[in-house]
Specification:
The chain is built from 16 helices and 13 strands. The protein is of the alpha/beta class. Strands 3-2-1-4-5-6-7 form a seven-stranded parallel sheet, with helices on both faces. A six-stranded parallel sheet has the order 10-9-8-11-12-13, with helices on both faces. Helix 1 packs parallel to helix 2 and helix 7 crosses helix 10. The relative contact order is 0.12.
Length: 405
């Protein structure tokens, strides 16, 4: 029999920044809204307060460890928490804590769910075995069709255990109508920009596979061809301790003669404002994105997107020749190709205001039809319900109807 108030335990290494972390918070809020209890085990971070405000309960836990002995100790501790907190289901969102969670869930006979958030590199049998824990759930959630295909090709996961649930975007939070001109002006001032300077925004943590060097090289090509004008490239993202990589980027920027054209503001808490300020957003990853949430966030803000055509972005960005020029929402370019990226950026910078505004309207409509936060929440609760014989999805949707204006 299903618990009257199901208790769902999610485990993730930290709550600092990133798509997996935000999904954890968003699902914790959905569980709470549906009348369930949402526990989150993590080492913590800047997003803890946001998670608690959403209705989740934070349990400090050494979830980031990769030490095998400590992972076994973690399994014992999770087993204890399952008993003491009457946990009905465990949901793991990262590999190292997933091993501890899997052992504990099997030991205690509770359902185990994983979300495959990343296109993890597999450099040998040991790494493949380590990654395989993310395909061992009673239900395995893939955040795109690309990810689902990857899971099946690597581990042969049966279709009946695999669910594709796209990363959702909150169209209420990410709403151009809610961003004031004053907010945009304040952000521009903080970046030292005038009102008319066009912004090329890359919102990605500072790590090499995100392709920052490619964007810098593309900007240099545009500058050398006198096509950059006074546009500014904003590389917005947390270095997360990769100080040497940030210094490398600063050297590349200086060597390219782009000191006046690039900003490195670090982590931003005001992403809707940043997308509203931007003329175009860039997802330049040189390795496949399992989903790539910045592509959908930018589009729902009406900001055109240039993304590399690997991984999941081809599922979220509508570009020619897959659609007509009138129905596109952005551009898709080959990875690690500064010249192709420069061409797309030039097209974005030179398009008329009317064409750009229409493209932005189509982009927002596209995301609101296919990649909403509400769909992600509802579909994830439905996975829990299937395993628990509960009614979380029904309760959640009922609550949404009752609170709708």
């Amino acid at each position: 029999m299903a618990a009257a108030r199901p208790t769902i335990l999610q485990i993730i290494p930290e709550l600092e920044t990133g798509g997996a972390e935000l999904s954890t918070i968003e699902i914790a809020g959905a569980i709470a809204s549906a009348g369930g209890r949402a526990l989150v085990l993590s080492e913590g971070g800047r997003l803890v307060c946001r998670m608690i405000a959403a209705g989740g309960e934070f349990i400090p836990f050494p979830a980031a460890t990769k030490n095998p002995a400590r992972m076994l100790w973690n399994a014992r501790e999770i087993s204890r928490i399952i008993d003491s907190e009457h946990v009905d289901l465990v949901h793991a969102r990262s590999r190292a804590p997933a091993w501890s969670a899997l052992i504990a869930a099997r030991r205690k006979g509770v359902p185990f769910v994983t979300t495959y958030h990343g296109a993890y590199n597999e450099s040998g049998r040991i790494k493949s075995a380590y990654n395989s824990v993310m395909a061992r759930g009673d239900a395995v959630i893939a955040n795109s069709n690309y990810t689902a295909d990857l899971v099946q090709s690597r581990y042969g996961t049966p279709t009946e255990r695999l669910r594709v649930i796209y990363r959702g975007v909150d169209g209420v939070q990410f709403d151009p109508a809610k961003v004031s001109d004053r907010d945009v002006a304040a952000l521009r001032e903080a970046w030292g920009l005038t009102a008319h300077q066009k912004i090329i925004l890359q919102a990605a943590r500072l790590t090499a596979w995100k392709g920052h060097s490619v964007v810098i090289a593309a900007a240099k090509l545009l500058k050398d061809a006198n096509s950059l004008g006074d546009a500014v490239l904003v590389l917005a993202g947390d270095a997360q301790g990769r100080d040497s990589y940030r210094r490398q980027l600063e050297t590349e920027i200086e060597d390219a003669g782009l000191l006046e054209h690039v900003r490195l503001p670090g982590h931003l808490d005001t992403m809707p404002v940043a997308y509203q300020a931007a003329h175009v957003a860039v997802v330049a990853s040189i390795e496949p994105e399992a989903f790539g949430r910045t592509a959908t966030e930018a589009q729902v803000m009406g900001c055109p997107v240039i993304a590399t055509n690997i991984g999941a972005p081809p599922e979220t960005v509508r570009a020619t020749p897959m659609v007509t020029a009138e129905n596109r929402t952005g551009w898709l370019v080959p990875p690690a190709d500064p010249r192709a990226l420069a061409t797309a950026i030039r097209d974005a910078l030179t398009m008329s205001d009317g064409v750009r505004q229409e493209l932005g309207r189509q982009a927002r409509t596209h995301v609101l039809q296919s990649f909403t936060l509400e769909a992600m929440r509802s579909q994830t609760l439905a996975v829990y319900d299937t395993l628990l014989n509960s009614s979380l999805e029904q309760q959640y949707n009922r609550g949404k109807r009752e609170t709708s204006p």
